[in-house]
Amino acid sequence: MNFISDNSVGVAPEIMSALVEANRGPSMPYGNDDWTRRVERRLADIFEHAVRVFPVATGTAANALSIATLVPPYGSLYAHEEAHVMVDECGAPELFSGGAKLRPLPGAHGKLTPEVLDRALKRDNSGDVHQVIPTAISLTQATEAGTVYKPAELQAIAEVARRHKVRLHMDGARFANAMAFLGVPARQVTWEAGIDVLSFGASKGGCMVAEAAVFFDPALAESFGHRRMRGGHLVSKMRFVSAQLETYVADGLWLKLARHANAMAQRLAQGLTATLPHLPGARLLHPVEANELFVQLPAGIIAGLRQAGFQFYDWPAEEGQAIRLVTAFNTEAAHVEQLLKTLRELIGRAA
User: Fold this and answer.
1) Which residue of 64, 206, 297, 301 sits 20 to 30 Å from the alpha carbon of 230, by its own alpha carbon?
2) Can you give the three-state secondary structure of 184-253, one letter per residue?
3) Under CATH, which architecture does the 13-252 domain have?
4) Radius of gyration of the chain (CA)
5) Which burial class, exposed, middle or buried, applies to 78 when counting CB atoms under 10 A from its CB (0-12, 13-18, 19+)?
């Protein structure tokens, strides 16, 4: 019973069918195909804005190459101290940008605030040739804590960014889950909120290997094509990446899959909220707004869940031990109920 990651599940049937269809006959390589052209049009419709779209195979490529496009080697990027670009990409943003400096910032529940950003930018924007130049901010949507930036929060951050003349990047590995939670038009949390480039995630949402860098200002994308090629991320048989993306965003499939994952997370959260008060020291660490839950539990209870067949990651907590539970587009409701039932049984034995 898998709650370890939305990376560990398979591919949505609709996506697999799209790959089979894309395999019929030849097509021009390196993105000069009909699927790639249609993806750009479909995303322009979703965002209600002209966009430049560059499909890639990994989220790290989308993030690192987008950041490199915004930030020069002598620039700096600000992100939450737990952001994927900070701790989980093996220095890829620094590598592809030619050495740009990453500035980690704190924030409750995985979020940056305008106040923290404003202080950091005032501190670092000295104009001194001995120091790097503040150039961009990266926001994660949904965050590494499973929380979601609301439109007003993004607009407040964008106001700080404009005041300090820095760009905004969004890591949208779980962008679909954020949108399913918010229920607002995509434009409200992207270009209307000041986002310059979005790493549009799809692999976690049900695709096999498909992500995209989406530029809302086409002029900013001028160098991206060459950066993608030079970085080894221009896929020769691009139609197989783009066919996934096209089907993913067609007819609202991306939101349908995300809504299921979010609904399973909410069912878990409701059950945990009812159960955890009976166990001293147990609690949810963050609000549950997308498809990730972080739960502090005694070590014996964690071991009992594993022995019962549940898979999940251990997660650091300020006090005690925590685990991360992730739901996906194909998480079974029966597995959610079984986890809650098992947890209640374990707590009863421990009482």
Assistant:
1) 206
2) CCHHHHCHHHCCCEEEEECCCCCCCCCEEEEECCHHHHCCHHHHHHHCCCCCCCCHHHHHHHHHHHHHHH
3) 3-Layer(aba) Sandwich (3.40)
4) 21
5) buried
pLDDT tens, 247-273?
A: 999 999 999 999 999 999 999 999 999
CB 76 within 8 A of CB 102: yes
Which residues are within 8 A (CB) of 203 and not within 5 positions of it... i.e. 6 or more apart?
7, 58, 59, 173, 209, 210, 211
- How many Cα neighbours within 13 Å face the side chain of 19? 15
The pair of three-digit structure tokens given for residue 98, joined into one six-digit string: 């030619």
The helix/strand/coil state of 339 is helix
Task: Look up the pTM and report it.
Answer: 0.96
Average pLDDT on 307-316 reads 96
107-123 tens-digit pLDDT: 999 999 999 999 999 99
Where do the domains of the chain lie? 13-252, 254-350
Closest to 215 measured CA to CA, from 22, 7, 43, 18: 43
Q: In degrees, to the nearest 5, what angle opens at C-alpha 320 toward C-alphas 315 and 322?
A: 25
Query: Taking residues 124-133, what's their average pLDDT?
Result: 91
Which residue reads 């490529």 in tokens?
61
Angle between helices 253-275 and 175-182 (to 10 degrees): 70
The predicted structure's pLDDT at residue 127? 86
- The angle that helices 151-163 and 114-124 make with each other, rounded to 10 degrees, is 10
**Can you tell me the mean pLDDT for 39-52?**
98
Q: Judge whether residue 351 has pLDDT over 80.
A: no
Tokens for 47, please give them.
Answer: 């965002």
Q: Report how far residue 73's alpha carbon sits from residue 207's, in angstroms, rounded to the nearest whole number.
A: 33
| Phi, psi of 175, rounded to the nearest 5 degrees | -60, -40
**CATH of region 254-350:** 3.90.1150.10
